[in-house]
Amino acid sequence: xxxxxxxxxxxxxxxxxxxxxxxxxxxxxxxxxxxxxxxxxxxxxxxxxxxxxxxxxxxxxxxxxxxxxxxxxxxxxxxxxxxxxxxxxxxxxxxxxxxxxxxxxxxxxxxxxxxxxxxxxxxxxxxxxxxxxxxxxxxxxxxxxxxxxxxxxxxxxxxxxxxxxxxxxxxxxxxxxxxxxxxxx
Length: 185
Hints:
The protein is of the alpha/beta class. The chain is built from 6 helices and 6 strands, in the order βαβαβαβααββα. The protein has one domain (about 5-150, about 165-170): 3-Layer(aba) Sandwich (Rossmann fold). The chain has a 6-stranded mixed beta sheet, with helices on both faces. α2 links the parallel β2 (about 55-60) and β3 (about 80-85). The two termini are about 30 Å apart.
């Protein structure tokens, strides 16, 4: 019997956005810091070997801009879908979308919003197997900063993904991107 393939769910919170007057929340663009952090996220994904096969991105302007800038530094152009259901989604909504992922996708990247990104990471993560993983989960519980990336790995089919069934493989924030962080959780 063949073993189940390892899959990765990569959760990228949109980069720092600005708050211009008279602009609806959905249409808020990236702030200058966000325009710096988003490409760094793409470089970090490439250097850490977390290049996705498929991307689901919120339709919010700040999320679309984050993906566009990250993709420019990714060194690949995976199929990307802009999904209305990610904007304002709960962790349960994001999990439902991930469960619909095609069987031939090994790494799915979701570009979305807090608090759903943090909540989904914590919900899916199994008990930590070491100090680094426990420390990363503690950091996520405290805060999931803009442009932060969590990488969850699991074996099995996307439709089977559920609470406590994934391992937090990595967590990095923009300050760690520039510092060359490649430590695993």
